[in-house]
Amino acid sequence: MIAMALSCNPEILIADEPTSALDVTIQAQILDLMKDLTNRLGTAVILITHSLGVVAGTCDTICVMYAGRFVERGPTDLIFENPMHPYTQGLIKSVPRLDKKGHGRLTSIRGQPPNVIDLPDCCPFYPRCDKAMDICKRKYPAWKTFDNGRTVGCWLYSEEK
């Protein structure tokens, strides 16, 4: 499928879970092949995945989504070093790290995801968020853009609170 998509020399390749259900060896080979081909052809890649490990080793920029909406965007290294949105923080804390010892148990994000068919007109993450404020239950937050290229949709960073 990847070869067929690249055979038309596209400007953008959208790869939706290209490595799901593959063992790590084949996964690494597929990602290396995609990176090599896209570099040679000058093709940009939008990688859609649930694997933070794949994202960390492959992407320059990350857009984190929750309930079909972007909640945080920025350079990969900045997001992994200092996640700002509570959902991004929860995702990163729930992944085992081999490079950090003694950090105890993995954490999970409490509660259940919302029904995406009937989303509220407010932050859909607030029922699961440990940092939720009253305004989170009433309005969806505007994007806050920072000088370092980060953008976050969370009331924690809004002057409007």
Taking all Cα atoms into account, the compactness measure Rg is: 18 Å
- Mean pLDDT comes to 88
Shape: globular
Number of helices: 5
Provide the helix percentage: 25-40%
Q: End-to-end span in angstroms?
A: 47 Å
What does this entry look like structurally?
The chain is α+β, with helices and mostly antiparallel strands. It has 2 domains: 1-59, Rossmann fold, CATH 3.40.50; 68-97 and 105-154, no CATH class. 27% of the residues lie in helices and 18% in strands. It has helices spanning 2-6, 24-41, 52-58, 76-81, 86-93; strands at 12-16, 44-48, 61-66, 69-75, 143-145, 151-153. The strands form 2 sheets. The chain has a 4-stranded antiparallel sheet. Strand 1 (12-16), helix 2 (24-41) and strand 2 form a beta-alpha-beta unit. It starts with a helix and ends in an 8-residue tail after the last strand.
List the helices and strands and how they pair.
Elements: H1 2-6, E1 12-16, H2 24-41, E2 44-48, H3 52-58, E3 61-66, E4 69-75, H4 76-81, H5 86-93, E5 143-145, E6 151-153
Parallel strand pairs: 1-2
Antiparallel strand pairs: 3-4, 4-6, 5-6
In short:
The protein is of the alpha+beta class and 161 residues long.
Question: What key phrases describe this protein's structure?
Answer:
6 strands; 4-stranded antiparallel β-sheet; alpha+beta; two-stranded parallel ribbon; globular; single chain; 161 residues; Rossmann fold
